[in-house]
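Exercise 7 asks you to align residues with tokens for two separate proteins.
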Amino acid sequence: MAEAHQAVAFQFTITPEGIDLQLSYQALNQIYLSGVRSWKKRVSRVRNSLIKGVYPASPSSWLFVAIGILATMYMQSDPSMGLITKIQQHLPLHMSLSTQGQTMVSALVFSTLLWLSLILALRFCLKLLLSYHQWMFEKHGRISNTTKVWVPLVRLLSSRKPLLYSYQSSLPHLPVPAIQDTVSRYLESVRPLLTDLEFKRMTDLANEFESNLGNRLQRYLKLKALWATNYVSDWWEEYVYLRSRGPIMVNSNYYGMDFLYVTPTSVQAARAGNTITALLLYRRKVNREELKPSRVPGTVIPLCAAQCERMFNTTRTPGVETDVLQHWLDSEFVAVYHRGRYFRLWVYRAGRLLSPREIEYQIQRILDDPSPALPGEEKLGALTAGDRIPWAQMRKQYFSSGVNKRSLDAIERAAFFVTLDDEEQGMRGDDPEGNLDSYAKSLLHGKCYDRWFDKSFSVVIYKNGKSGLNAEHSWADAPTVAHLWEYTLATDAFQLGYTEDGHCKGEVEPSLPQPQRLVWNIPAEAQVSSSLAVAQALADDVDCHVFPFREFGKGRIKKCRISPDAFIQISLQLAYYRDRSGFCLTYEASMTRLFREGRTETVRSCSNESCAFIKALEKHLSACSKCRRLFQLASEKHQNLYRMAMTGAGIDRHLFCLYVVSKYLGVESPFLKEVLSEPWRLSTSQTPVQQMNLFDLKNHPDFISLGGGFGPVADDGYGVSYIIVGEDMVNFHVSSKYSCSQTVSNVSVSWIFALSFCKGFFFPVLLGLLL
């Protein structure tokens, strides 16, 4: 318990002679330095609040306005048209100041008010400019005059170097679409999936909803849109994520992988040291708002950064009816799991971040610790993997006080969670690519108890130095976590680096305290095993397949003058059609971060145009000109659907919010009930590469990201995630369930995709036609 004694700043003993007070100057010094660090962060927050509060102006611009007003008054002119005189008459200090002093103060007050008015005007203009989205729908080379004027105005108003959150108050609010437009788009999206009789029935339901209940629900939704920052996001977070009572493992959480070909070091502790350091450096950038705001690729248009706020020091706590996201402003430690034991690892000492070498040293201490797990400790994490209600009940009964509460607080308040896995993963052995499947399953669910699935994200460091992460979904979407993980991988490999023998760089302070072992008192009746059984059954049912596609990539697709995303989405439609002899409702995630607090919208990729193309391709392969035309129409339709989803004209979030309103009002809508019960048998998502400048693929071609994946949404469907890497590669992550006899991840999607594109059938024909 040496670390416990070091944490005590003073001790006192009562003796017959009086009180014997003993001070620990080392502990007091640590407290002082930690306080200095906290105050520096407070000052930094105040400074950043001022800078972003006046954006797109600057704090120094007040001085120019004040000097301009005073200079004008010096020239015997009143730029305020009498307002300065009126301010002077109402000054509370007019009796104690000279006339000249009163005039000076009044001029400064007027200058401040004028300056604030100019800031509001500039911000309003920027908000109007960012509300213009027609530029997304204009074809290449056919830019309208409006857009030509709009581009330089946006550049002018956003020319100052922004902080991470500078644009937040200038982003427009997500608009509520007209109910007629949403219903019409919905009917168009389901037309290829329904028979004539089914479509007529759905049309009747939709028309009845639109003409009666829909307008009433729409009025309430518009009222919320006027009051709330975003009419979707809070309900989406609560009802889609936090109120779900099933396991979040597999069903909600997703994973991210390491480099495909490269492992920077095979030393587990060293990889952990650099990875933890890189993550904490990213957190420092977030706290100081030094990260550049994300933008629409190739433009100056900013994206909402609100999801970064809860990236670190965040956990999801279970409840009987709904979970709650808890976030703390700061945390100076991470939680570490190794061989059934939990540790608290302090990553700051004397107010400074430990060096990578020092963190490696501390991690190695954990790896070398021979102590066994306490009773009930090893599989405790299974509580976060099973159903939410039992976990909430267990938490209230056994973790609300005493030593269990203190240890649980250490995990939940940690910056993030780290698992030191005792397995080896990655491309290895006799079947390197086949082993990627077990790598994906390991990151998705592990052993069901060696991850803390409630943390905002958990980092996994394997025995052979491979790494990855598992992220909880409610606080943010995949692009935000992908941005973090890209920075982490690049900083680890190219900035921090390793010594020749694979260890971290830097020196070790010899007096570092031991990592603190967390202590538990878990009774036998805690029934962790029941949650583990639920989680294990779910994990055993998941079939994952990782498929690096190298035959061609974005470069050759663009030569066809086709959107790479549209190309891949249509190919997945073809794959599903050949696999199941039909089409299905298809989900592609699109972001709505053009709007404040925007999250995602659904692109319904299975369209009339894509279905017509696939049917023509299957029936009339020789009719190449017809296939070409239909393929171009399908691609253009998909791009248009994606743009509409990004600009707030999607279908599903609007209908979802109308459904929530109907539940609050206690009214039933057969139309909404049927819409929201439709299964997404093909759920897809593209992981964007956002920081290519961090990866020099020309000089380091092996440092290729594998991307990440997620579990299937429907029991009889597929989950497909893909990442377009460079010009010549697309990595696919396909998941399904073994319990469904109609789905096989390894064969059905990826094999058909390869057959369609590589074996001389689909791509060569289109390439020859479109070039």
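Second protein for Exercise 7:
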Amino acid sequence: MAQQDSKKIFFENLSGAGKAIAVLTSGGDAQGMNAAVRAVVRMGLYVGAKVYFIKEGYQGMVDGGDNIREATWESVSSMLQVGGTVIGSARCKDFRSHEGRLKAAHNLVQRGITNLCVIGGDGSLTGANLFREEWSGLLTELVEQGLIEADAVQKYSALHIVGMVGSIDNDFCGTDMTIGTDSALHRIIEVVDAIMTTAQSHQRTFVLEVMGRHCGYLALVSALACGADWVLIPEMPPEDGWEDKMCQKLSANRAGMKRLNIIIVAEGAIDRNNKPITTDYIKDLVVKNLGFDTRVTILGHVQRGGTPSAFDRILASRMGVEAVLALLETTANTPACVVSLCGNQSVRVPLMECVQTTQEVQKAMDQKRFEEAVKLRGRSFENNLRTYKLLAHRKPESELPVSNFNVAVLNVGAPAAGMNAAVRSAVRVGISEGHKMFAVSDGFEGFYKGQIKEIKWGDVGGWTGQGGSLLGTKRTLPAKHVDKIAEQMRKHNINALLVIGGFEALLSLLELSEARGKYDEFCVPMVMVPATVSNNVPGSDLSIGADTALNAITTTCDRIKQSASGTKRRVFIIETMGGYCGYLATVGGLAAGADAAYIYEEPFDIRDLQANVEHLTEKMKTSIQRGLVLRNENCNVNYTTDFIYQLYTEEGRGVFDCRKNVLGHMQQGGAPSPFDRNFGTKISAKAMQWLSQKLVETYRKGRVFANSEDSCCLLGMRARALVFQPVVRLKDETDFVHRIPKEQWWLKLRPLMKILAKYKTSYDVSDSGQVEHVIHSRPKDSDASVAM
């Protein structure tokens, strides 16, 4: 499918010729930094610039010599899946001094470097901005000392800086997610899931300390993702007397037949008097007051290690390319910027605005202005905290509003990881709103058979980390059984419906909406939350379950490529799921470093296949040892996985051999990723609150009656915001034959994958080039990961 017409950059007219770009990683390491380095190097070389590694961060810049080396295309091969930073990172005292920065300037000028891409935290980026401001003065000093020629001052008059934030703490204001945060959450959740099994066996309480000296993001989101009983973070210390409240909560949970307790503590957790709250203090408290068998686990640097998640690889790759574009477009008067993430879009924000806002958070905490500190962290952080409180702490029955409304929740379509988290969230928010919640087993098939029962707060405990669908899900559509479903709606007095599922869920709501003319029982508020690994639901850029599937694909591709390590040159042909939607193949290809990804949305023929084989053959003749080709399962009826495997085998004979692998249903299985747990939790909570609002609005003369378009909606993430959209209005956006949206945002990522695989292609930058301000530009519901 051709890219939509817009401002585009082509290889011929986007030129970095004569420019030198240097990339460095500074401060603490974070998973995904290597993906960012790889993207900067390859995009820089693609546009004709010279690109340099600066090893060991600012220390390497000060020391010079072999620490500053020219990079080649091959020098960043096989680093996408490696954690940490292969070019090294170090804290540098020398760069804090004027003499150190003078040495650094000399080393850069000697190599003609006037463009810096800095990957690090706020300290690293603040240092880069100071260096930029001092640049002309430093060059003048170097001339006076006779270290450089006078004409160098004019030739290298300006230093251009672009930053990318690499930090597992997600403590930088101005971006929804920093590189490394999602991977750190993966490490935490892996440990928590493992600990939960042993805690349950022995009826133990576990106190877990996670990183976050000044920021509680990791603690808060991991608590939300695993359903922790209590969480302590520096931005919002607990009220005085919290110890008794916490013990009451733990005791009540045990009385409710729960066999374990999980308490998550940020390493920088404090009380209202700024006094540290330690894990040992909490352990002693629980043992003394409750007598529970209690253990402490400090995760430490495990959180920094390991392979980067699919999210971090994609985020870092997009940011790296955007950083090069920003450097090429910058002028002497352009302020230093940071490439950041807003929703699912890359944006540029002024570096010092971000740094100042980040510093204001710490000032607010120091001055005990905790509510303000939470607000300064951003809407995503506020929403996480609000949702955690809503789901973790049940109000006494006497404090719950009485609505007398019955709300049914069901799963429809194929199972997707994160569905259970969405159900748990819906049930608990519904109960908090005063509704009676009903669970429907096996989708609409169970609905018409009467498999409907009330579900209570405690019934969904521990559901967040469970894969698949505990309610059961079927692809059955309601149209054939609409009379029986209406009868069950009447029998159980169902006043609202929450449907969690994929394309079948959308079709189901369309059918129920049409049935309103005949059956009053369907004249109730209905909302759908998208959940499918295929990510093919119109009206939403992301679906629950797609991130878990991407991680399964990425991890498997890593292992498959590693299987060829030390052998002769080999190309792997891998088939992914997705129906006719190429999301998994494309984005999975970007995360795994694929050479090609064949999808239905971008038609291809035998000439394209031949060109891909020739391209791979040329790469294999140099130093690339392994190739990776992804194919969406329904991309072409004739060019099957077997056909492509046989073609590559024949045409690559004598240069490389081939292997094929069909990933199949492993993409649907497994525990949900942190992203899917939180996306499911937060989007479902929002859907439930919308239903509550609609129930009040449509309650007239003792009954609920809702038959307008806007009472039957899909809640989806559109670019930067969560939006409720009437399902009937989504018809025009939908290709019903192939079960995909007519327009899909991720198609803009395909040229990015091709560029990083050394293809000449166009790259759409219609969304690039806009510098946005940190706070005022964000839409109300902006949330990268509304999830995260």
